[in-house]
Amino acid sequence: xxxxxxxxxxxxxxxxxxxxxxxxxxxxxxxxxxxxxxxxxxxxxxxxxxxxxxxxxxxxxxxxxxxxxxxxxxxxxxxxxxxxxxxxxxxxxxxxxxxxxxxxxxxxxxxxxxxxxxxxxxxxxxxxxxxxxxxxxxxxxxxxxxxxxxxxxxxxxxxxxxxxxxxxxxxxxxxxxxxxxxxxxxxxxxxxxxxxxxxxxxxxxxxxxxxxxxxxxxxxxxxxxxxxxxxxxxxxxxxxxxxxxxxxxxxxxxxxxxxxxxxxxxxxxxxxxxxxxxxxxxxxxxxxxxxxxxxxxxxxxxxxxxxxxxxxxxxxxxxxxxxxxxxxxxxxxxxxxxxxxxxxxxxx
Amino acid sequence: xxxxxxxxxxxxxxxxxxxxxxxxxxxxxxxxxxxxxxxxxxxxxxxxxxxxxxxxxxxxxxxxxxxxxxxxxxxxxxxxxxxxxxxxxxxxxxxxxxxxxxxxxxxxxxxxxxxxxxxxxxxxxxxxxxxxxxxxxxxxxxxxxxxxxxxxxxxxxxxxxxxxxxxxxxxxxxxxxxxxxxxxxxxxxxxxxxxxxxxxxxxxxxxxxxxxxxxxxxxxxxxxxxxxxxxxxxxxxxxxxxxxxxxxxxxxxxxxxxxxxxxxxxxxxxxxxxxxxxxxxxxxxxxxxxxxxxxxxxxxxxxxxxxxxxxxxxxxxxxxxxxxxxxxxxxxxxxxxxxxxxxxxxxxxxxxxxxxxxxxxxxxxxxxxxxxxxxxxxxxxxxxxxxxxxxxxxxxxxxxxxxxxxxxxxxxxxxxxxxxxxxxxxxxxxxxxxxxxxxxxxxxxxxxxxxxxxxxxxxxxxxxxxxxxxxxxxxxxxxxxxxxxxxxxxxxxxxxxxxxxxxxxxxxxxxxxxxxxxxxxxxxxxxxxxxxxxxxxxxxxxxxxxxxxxxxxxxxxxxxxxx
Lengths: 348, 563
Ligand code: HEM
Description:
Chain B: It is a multi-pass membrane protein. By secondary structure, chain A is mostly helical. Helix content of chain A is 70%, strand content 0%.
């Protein structure tokens, strides 16, 4: 068995473990829903109307952060000042870490390690960085999505996004393995550049942050709807939402993840221009791929502005983040494969 | 407020009773109203999103700037739709009136937004932090501590000041009149002015990029030139195959250096059978002579341009240039040249055109196919099975008649207009197309003369064709004086972005309240100015450090009271 075959074997193994992780995370969501139902029933209707206090009305950093701190008698250090603490603390229905959640995280780490091995083996098989065609972009890009997710987990408890992250990575890897697979080939002269290493890597890393930001924005929108329903005593279908942070906290988290993604994307744009100047003699030529990189950059600049514009914070800016990530996926999946341009490197 | 009025951080808008809604506004009033609309956040957001949307069509429809052949093809494929699209400048989206209008409005809005902010920021940089609010309780990170006994209020606030100063805050001290029996000293501190500076630098750098790209590029030029191995090019206007000057370009700015393509070599993959024959390296060995200087040699590669004589030389394309000689029936040479053939596929099946306008009884045109490694399919059609010269073969279809060169219409050297010509070989003529290997000569039909496929390396062994056909390289030669500027502005923008997104701007207050009973309460609180996730942690941290500072300074004095 050669290195590439070993890489393929690892990739399929990683996908199998991701699938198990996905199931565990899905179990966890189901358990959350059940816990919320029990809590609701126990507390009765009276509790239901009490839930939104201190959650729904909050919008903006200062107020969101200070709600827990009015009790000045608390000794220093226990004050709620860490975002991770806030995530756990401002859920409507408190909920610990279920066993399935912990199993899901462990499986994700395991799958990530196998995935990393698949990626590294592919790199060794090719004798270069493993991101020079669609199959390899997908493999490395999804690896970075999971890496970003796992790193963020050490700083903020976003385990509840596990279903989304593993699910998305699984789908992308499936498409990559079945539709984008190409044999190991040496780099064509156009790709032999240090900028391939930098530009594509940073773009993939940026995509990892955008993916996480997208997930947070989607949950933010769902949570916003839940909060509105609860406020008007409506019926909430996705019960597990009650165990997640408030829409305002989710929005702040999403914003922070997005600005890191945006900075990486800005760098991608610049590095790409420098490379284009070296390879094609002009730094910007409105080639289809350049156009889409620009469109994505502009949408996220819009998102950042929206967050600072009265009337656009909250749900509207979340929608912009969703549009932005759709453009990222479109750029990867559709522009690479179907659009004509100088960036004809999909290898398909 | 420095920010636009609809920035979320600005005071809430006044009720809509202002003069904007009054019917008689006057010209100045309207202009002012328009300006205010243009420079608010909502307009900027709208224009940004509009710009994103407006950029989309240019990726769906081929653009003249990046894909002129695609545009021609589009016109051929969609004869009804294309002219309509052309009317709305769909083939020149990025220089179209509507696209330009959007980004110009956006940048006017940007300038109109950033200038007042800059003014305000300069004032803020010189101003003192504002007075401490009367009540800190409702502010972020509010912390209340009891000072160690024996602490003096003024001294406590003073030590808070040095602590804050060390952490990069600008501090002002206040001493408020006694209120209900207690006296208050306070320190008001602010930090993170760099955040706004970064934001302004970022926006200004964007303007810088736009201006340099817009005006500066007018001073440059770009030109293309094809060189066959052994050929020399002199950097003058006439020597270019195609040339596009910027608006302010004058040809006196061309330095007439000489550039010779000495050798063009290609390396092919031979180890990896899955990618066998894939090109892995193109190298153009060139020599350059600048006026008054000795000859210098260099290599131009893809991704590695050569900078010389104020220009950048890029390697763009390459292929084979079979050398062909045509003689009349008496053996007099009427044409001899190496003709660049355009590659048609990965194995370099190449297509070329030879035009012989003079010297024969009729004008002669030939459409040639060149196969570096010729192979035949089951139907008998030729193709190339490998891009290097293993078994080279040239086939020629001969046409005679009017080449159409005198009509005054510019014609491409890569295409033959056969409208007024008669086909002499191939197709339905029943005459076989000419097939030539390097070094071979064949007679032209109708006794017109002969054609020879010259061997570029005649001394080689019988089945070694590796040097038998010359290669050509196509070079792009550019001069763009703005590149350095654009890069500098881009780096500035990135740095500005980093500072403005990661430097927290915040206010912190420390208040010492003396009570009648002699105890001293310390209050700490902060206020975020923009996104500031770590604010509360920072306030707590200041309170902790201040507490330790006070403890150590009071324990130095003999304790008078224990608690
Ligand atoms: C070419 C157009 C523009 C682009 C690409 C752009 C991009 C950005 C980006 C990336 C940021 C976030 C980074 C930072 O804070 O420095 C930002 C912030 C900001 N922009 Fe722009 N901008 C543009 C035009 C404008 C215009 C026209 C205005 C004024 C109406 C404006 C006002 C602001 C303000 C006030 C902020 C601070 C937002 C905050 O407080 O978080 N920008 N802009």
